[in-house]
Input
Amino acid sequence: MGGRRGLARLSCEKVLAVLEGFVRRRIAAAAVLAIGLTFGLAGCTFFTPQATLIHYDPSDGVSLNLGKIQIRNAFVIAPKGTDANFIGAVINNGNQKFTIDLQYSAHVDGKDTVTNKVFTLKSGQVKSFGNPGVPQLVFRDADVRPGALLKIFVVYGTASGPTVSGRNLLLPVLDGSQSYYSGLGPSPLPSPTPTATATN
Output
């Protein structure tokens, strides 16, 4: 009887040892799998660009960073494809007054003429164009059709000269047919006032 009990005890110990080893291997395998999944899934964030970090312009306009000057949400409205009204904001992030120069090609009588639109911004000033009641900045004779891009050259500086090298900016051209752009087309040039002629 004692021998049988000893054999049974040995058999139970072997079974328990086998089961314990099996459980340990399962736990180890599960831990390795969990670690592998953690690093594998976390690795996606290292190699996949996050959409929230991708810069984009959330409207119809485009933006430009040029030294201390920023242009935001810029486009033009040109219903007739000739004159184009500039819409957008220009920001001076510098600590001094700057003169901003927007250059474009005017098309008159078959000739292209570089034309300048110049204005000044004080330090920290934000100047918006295109809002009702605000003086317009119109690119006269730009000759661009809705759906095209109007190329302008942006440069700024102080009284002593340009501060940084300028850059081109391609402005989307819209026809202004959207209701929220109603009334933002370029205003016509004022008609010349006739002068009285002297009579004898």
In short: The first strand starts at residue 62 and ends at 66. The mean pLDDT is 81. DSSP finds one helix and ten strands in the chain. Helices lie at 2-47.
